[in-house]
Amino acid sequence: MKQKRKRIDYGKWGYIFILPFFLSFFIFSFIPLVDTVRYSFYEYYRSGIREIGPTFIGLENYANLLKSDMLRYAGNTMILWIIGFVPQIGIAMLLANWFVDARLKIRGKQFYKVVIYLPNLIMASAFAMLFFTLFSTNGPMNSILTSLGWIKEPIDFMGTAFGTRSLVGVMNFLMWFGNTTIMLMAAIMGINPDIFEAAEIDGCNSRQRFFYITLPMIRPILAYTLITSIIGGLQMFDVPQILTNGQGAPDRTSTTLIMFLNNHLKSKNYGMAGALSVYLFIVSAILCWFVYKMTNNEVKATKQRAKKLAKKA
């Protein structure tokens, strides 16, 4: 009699290998997330050595946040994100297009890739301390400008809302444009070279190739970049926190939503902190859904146009 061969159940081993991840996620992420949402419906804070609550108060924490300066801090966060993201995506797209274009014959591409990515490896706290030292009233930047005769008195870069926000935006740009450039380069390199050759034979110039071929083809990566940037912008904390010593100076014009959340955590107001966390989650989900739908609809429209052209041909 033939012996029956044992059948290996690879699916079972797959579940076993991913089990540690789900256990870690459940213990360290899911349970704290549920607790955060639960505490958002409770009055739970400390007053001195006395602990108040937890007492169920429904949506009162959410209503109190809307009456506070939360919307002002949301505006600050959006402004700081825009100042850093707009030049970031523009410069990254330009550099990615240049490095990938074989006709330019740029030498030392690997060296340039390493150089533009290096700022991403520096800790945000170290970057903020560096800029704080460089642009302080008695810092090197003021000394250089004074010695050149361009200014008579030191400039208080961090004494104005424009100066502080500009420094935060520049730091975010320098830290992340290299990472964005590498991702966009990978996306452009994934496009079939035959498409560019056909476009060149048909007489397309560089601008037409970029707007009608490159941009539509890398739209999914652009959507990913925008979504991750939005999430990172809403979580902006370390750079403005260190640069302004946690004060959001001047006049709280650089205070972000996470800095506002951190103030509630420091004052042990867990109910308000939980409600603000839920607000951040909802805003992030809505913005990401909007970006996804917008890019997904464009991709579908492009495919439909391609099918119509194929039928006509």
Automatic annotation (TrEMBL):
Pfam hit, one: BPD_transp_1
Alphabetic keyword roster: Cell membrane, Membrane, Sugar transport, Transmembrane, Transmembrane helix, Transport
Transmembrane segments annotated in the record for this chain: 12-34, 78-99, 111-135, 167-189, 210-231, 270-292
Principal cellular location given in the protein's record: membrane
GO terms of biological process kind: transmembrane transport
Entries under InterPro entries matching the protein: ABC_transporter_permease (IPR051393), MetI-like (IPR000515), MetI-like_sf (IPR035906)
Cell compartment(s), UniProt: Cell membrane
Membrane topology: Multi-pass membrane protein
UniProt-listed SUPFAM superfamilies: MetI-like (SSF161098)
Highest taxon of source: Bacteria
One GO location term (cellular component): plasma membrane
Residue stretches making up the ABC transmembrane type-1 domain: 74-291
Family: Belongs to the binding-protein-dependent transport system permease family.
The protein, known as: Multiple sugar transport system permease protein
Source organism: Streptococcus henryi
Organism lineage: Bacteria, Bacillati, Bacillota, Bacilli, Lactobacillales
